[in-house]
Amino acid sequence: MLRLILLLPVLVLLVLFGLSNREEVLLHLWPFDLAWAVPLSTAMLVFAAVFFLFGALVAWVAGLPARARARRAERAAQVLEAELNEHRAAAARQVGPVPQRAGTSLVISQRPAA
């Protein structure tokens, strides 16, 4: 629901921008002799999308070291957990089952009211 609340004004602004800027512009690609005649709104939105994707790529590359550290920590945690389970199993084998004494049981004692 929060996404919709945040996304709706942006979509309204994009639609208004597209409707308000219908003039054609001629985009040249240097050093080639290519030209592209498009509405201004389309050109701006395409450039915005390209630079958004470039920013997302930069953020993804910047997060690579953190994700690698997280993977290494996860593997180390799995190894340590397996080692802990082995130690627990070895300790249980050494101690063995704890026998109860014959004729003893827990007794619930009640203290007299003060």
* Envelope shape: elongated
**What is the radius of gyration?**
34 Å
Order of strands across the main sheet: 1-2
Task: Report the mean per-residue pLDDT as an integer.
Answer: 88
Which percent range describes the beta-strand content? 5-15%
Helix content: 55-70%
Low-confidence stretches: none
Secondary-structure element series:
HEEHH
The largest β sheet comes out as: 2 strands, antiparallel
Note the total helix count.
3
Number of strands: 2
Given helix and strand content, the structural type is mainly alpha
Brief overview:
The chain has 114 residues and is mainly alpha-helical. It contains three helices and two strands. A two-stranded antiparallel sheet has the order 1-2.
Question: What do these coordinates show?
Answer:
- With 114 residues, this protein is mainly alpha-helical.
- It is built from three helices and two strands, in the order αββαα.
- The protein has a two-stranded antiparallel sheet with strand order 1-2.
- β1 and β2 (34-39) form a beta hairpin.
- α1 runs antiparallel to α2.
- The two termini are 60 Å apart.
- The relative contact order is 0.05.
- The model has no long low-confidence stretch (mean pLDDT 88).
